[in-house]
Design goal:
about 70 residues; mainly beta; three-stranded antiparallel β-sheet; 5 strands
Length: about 70
């Protein structure tokens, strides 16, 4: 599961339907394109969190969200 926090925005993974699994084999990586749709004007630090099937966080990444 991929989630977003820090800003009030809706996350969508391009090419993946909601609820679909993203399988990444051990010792490999997977590139994903995501879109964030803000529900209000603004900007801030966004934190992406990926969780495994047990719910444990396996990685986090931070970026800057800027609403144009």
């Amino acid at each position: 599961m991929l989630a977003v926090g820090g800003v009030d925005a809706k996350l969508a993974i391009v090419g993946i339907q909601n609820g679909s699994s993203i399988v990444v084999a051990p010792e490999t990586s997977e590139a994903l394109r995501v879109t964030l749709t803000g529900s209000a004007d603004g900007q801030g630090e966004v934190v992406f969190t990926a969780r495994d099937e047990t719910g444990a966080a396996v990685l986090t990444a931070k970026d800057r969200f800027v609403d144009h």
